[in-house]
Amino acid sequence: MAAQSRSSIHNNVDIRVGDVVIITGHRLGIVRYVGTVHFGEKNEQYLGVELKGHRDEQYGCDGTVDGKEYFKSKHEKSGVFVKSVSRVVPPEEILKKLAELNEQLLLCTCGSGYNQITANVAKSEPSNNKNGDNDDSKQQDVPFDPYYGGQLNPDSSSEESAEI
Fold first, then answer.
1. Which residues does the UniProt record annotate as the domain CAP-Gly (predicted)?
2. Is residue 48 domain-shared with residue 96, that is, in the same domain?
């Protein structure tokens, strides 16, 4: 399988490998292949698209058709070949949406939403009280880390918790 760096013009838009596109059925995917295919008309351009969050049970593949590999998809039936796309999603639009979602996550985990999460975690954990009584007022309120699904260490510095 040769890496494809060619582009194709669909609906007056230059489409390249790596572009994020929306195809029929409002399905989101990444272009993994641009070029001709052995099962299509001679010199006709196809796009190999790896669907994200979707599978095509009827026409999907893993990027291989009749033993010929055009690209590799992570999941069986998540690759499709199309002649056109509904639209190309520009990187700026993706970053804007990602920033909006990140802001919503921060709002959810900060302020009153953050306190609600830590309160729910504290209630769901068994008491660490050595006396055996269930006096939760003695429990320390430990923040919950939404990214890793666990408690933050209250003694850790902000630099340590910022590392990935």
1. 46-83
2. no
Q: Is residue 134 part of a domain?
A: no
Angle ∠(104,106,112) on CA atoms, nearest 5: 100
Residue keyed to tokens 């040769």: 2
d(CA 27, CA 57): 13
Number of domains into which the chain is organized = 2
pTM, rounded to two decimals? 0.59
* Model confidence at 47: pLDDT above 60: yes
| Distance (Å, whole) CA 60 – CA 5 | 23
For 78, the token pair is 């998540």
Give the integer Cα–Cα distance in Å for 123 and 127.
9
Range of the domain at 57: 7-89
Alpha-carbon Rg for the chain in angstroms: 24
- CATH classification at residue 48: 2.30.30.190
Rounded mean pLDDT, 104-133? 59
Token code pair at residue 157: 């510095």
What tens digit of pLDDT does each residue of 101-115 get?
Answer: 999 888 887 655 555
